[in-house]
Amino acid sequence: MAFIDKTDYEDSINENILDDITESDDTKLDVATSRAITQAKGYLNARYDIENIFNKIGDDRNPVILMYSIDIALYHLHSLLNPRKIPKYRETRFEKAVEWFEAVRDSMINPPDLPIVTTGQKDYVLSGGNERRDSQI
């Protein structure tokens, strides 16, 4: 069983609509799901143990990560169907999901129950300085 399975989509999209979009081909859903999880991992991997997060199933999964991953997957699924006719609400939910993952990546949001990487943690050095001063006397 994977982090996201087909039954998880029931809260976000009607099953008949999902079958219409995928043409009842679950491999299309699997591709979109895989892309969404990979995208989510890319945002979280610097600070969090992504294998621990995405290997969970059932009620052990973080519900917010699950929700936003499904939103990303549905956006990718619609873009496979027709990239010029993605519903506006799917675009909005996709943008909100990306914003949330970026905020987590940038430490603006710190979900309390996510396992932090303790060994081999990636630390980034910020560079820059103060504004240049002109000391003309």
Can you describe what's shown?
By secondary structure, the protein is an all-alpha fold. The chain has one domain. Helices cover about 50% and strands about 0% of the residues. The protein contains five helices and no strands. The protein is globular and about 75 Å long. It starts with 14 loop residues before the first helix and ends in a 32-residue tail after the last helix. The mean pLDDT is about 90.
Strand count, sense and barrel status of the largest sheet are: none
What distance lies between the first and last C-alpha atoms, to the nearest angstrom?
71 Å
One letter per element, helices H and strands E, the order comes to HHHHH
Report the principal-axis shape. Answer: globular
- Name the average pLDDT: 88
Number of β-strand runs: 0
Helix proportion of residues, in percent? 40-55%
> Would you identify the regions where 5 or more consecutive residues have pLDDT less than 50?
none
Going by helix content, strand content and strand pairing, the class is: mainly alpha
Characterize this entry briefly.
By secondary structure, the chain is mainly alpha-helical.
Please name the defining characteristics of this protein:
137 residues; mainly alpha; single chain; globular
Helix and strand arrangement:
Elements: H1 15-22, H2 26-44, H3 50-54, H4 63-81, H5 88-105
